[in-house]
Amino acid sequence: MTHHAITVLGHDRPGIIAEATRILADLGMNLEDSTMTLLRGHFAMTLVGSGEVEAAAVEEALAPLTAAGDLTVSVREVPEEQVSARVGTSWVLTVHGGDRPGIVSTIVGQVAELGGNITDLTTRLAGELYLLVAEVDLPAGVDVESLRTALRAAGDDLGVGVSLHEVEADDL
Amino acid sequence: MSTPAELVGWDVARLGVDGRVLEVVRAPAPVLSTPGEAVDPRAADTVQLAADLVATMRVSPGCVGLAAPQVGVGARVFCVDVSEHPKTRDHHGTFVLCNAEVLESSRNDRSREGCMSVPDFTGEVKRASRLVVRGELPGTGEQVLVTANAFEARALQHEMDHCAGLLFLDRVAGAHAVHARKTYL
Question: Residue of A9, A49, B98, B107 with fewest CB within 10 Å of its CB?
Answer without folding.
Answer: B107
